[in-house]
Amino acid sequence: MKRAEFDVIIVGAGPAGLTAGIYVARAGLNAVLYEKLSPGGQAATTDLVENYPGFDRGISGLELMEKMESQARRFGLRIEFKPVDRVYSSDGLHFVRTADGEDNSARAVIVATGAEPNPLGVPGEDALRGRGVSYCATCDGPLYRSGKVAVVGGGDSAVGEAIFLTRFASKVYLVHRRHQLRATKSLQDKALSNDKVEFIWDSVVTRIEGEDSVNSISIRNVRSAKERKLKVDGVFIYVGRKPNSAILDTEVRSDQKGYIITNEHMETSVKGLFAAGDVRSKLLYQIATAVGDGATAAYAVEKSIAG
After folding, report:
1. Domain 6-116+241-306 is classified in which CATH homologous superfamily?
2. Which of 56, 103, 140, 195 is labelled catalytic?
């Protein structure tokens, strides 16, 4: 059997991957972390993080991720900016193929590739992402105290987060393309009975506007085709989310949405293959839980390698 080139390969440099990197580097394991773009993942796009412990005045997502990267490098973690095309297993080893065609083997792999929200795909969305366009009310809701925000969607996530946002915003507009919500009845009842929530039925957002930050959205009624502009301070988009798990070229147990299922040690159904952060199936998708996942996965890898 071919000898492993690394003890562990980490794929993804978000909060989970960088935390795993810190732990494996401190443990003296021969490790490499691959990241396709820049460190931080979705967390780096958050303008202000107020619910991560240790920063009483909050910290920008980008700065927090830069600190994590710096800490990982200080412990000697090797970070290479290469997209990963494939993760597969053969003859007791795990292999990671990068976009340049290079195959590297390891005794263990930690997949920390995160998940991506489905975009609306309308003008202004990309330009104002992190500056009023958000995909996480738990992360950014407190920034809109006494403001007006729009939530786009009609499922459990959209309705649940709209209710959550009423803790801070003075008005929450829920924009849904149908005249009936898809959320569970209990969530619907809560939203419909909340005076701060105003429903905009049979409508879609066609444009998000603003210069330095969001100041309005354009809405089209799908029945009448009439358009109007709505003044808002922020837009929260919940039209689905997908895990970045397509690189896995092996039979790994996952849930109906494609999120990887792990045990409490972050082990997948394939021995030696671990998953951490937003790519795995769990209750809460936050920086804090991703960090915990990364630490747990790294510790489990260390113990498995030690025998």
Report:
1. FAD/NAD(P)-binding domain (3.50.50.60)
2. 140
* CA–CA gap between residue 219 and residue 258 (Å, rounded): 32
Q: Is 212 a catalytic residue?
A: no
Q: What is the pTM of this model?
A: 0.79
- Do 6-116+241-306 and 119-237 fold alike per CATH? yes
Closest CA to 138 of 151, 148, 125: 151
Q: How many CB atoms lie within 10 A of CB 249?
A: 13
* Tens of pLDDT, residue by residue, the chain (307 residues): 456 799 999 999 999 999 999 999 999 999 999 999 889 988 887 777 888 999 999 998 899 999 999 999 999 999 999 999 999 998 889 999 999 999 999 999 999 999 988 999 999 999 999 999 999 888 899 999 999 999 999 998 899 999 999 999 999 999 999 999 999 898 999 999 999 999 999 999 999 999 999 999 999 999 999 999 999 999 999 998 899 999 999 889 999 999 999 999 999 999 999 999 999 999 988 999 999 999 999 999 999 998 7
Specify the residue for token string 């309705």.
159
- Using the 8-state DSSP alphabet, how is residue 292 labeled? H
Active site residue 140: yes
Q: Which of 7, 139, 278, 293 is catalytic?
A: 139
Q: Which of 136, 233, 278, 293 is catalytic?
A: 136
Q: Which of the following CATH numbers is that of domain 119-237: 3.40.640.10, 3.40.50.10860, 3.30.300.30, 3.50.50.60? A: 3.50.50.60
What is the rounded distance in angstroms from the CA atom of residue 294 to the CA atom of residue 266?
8
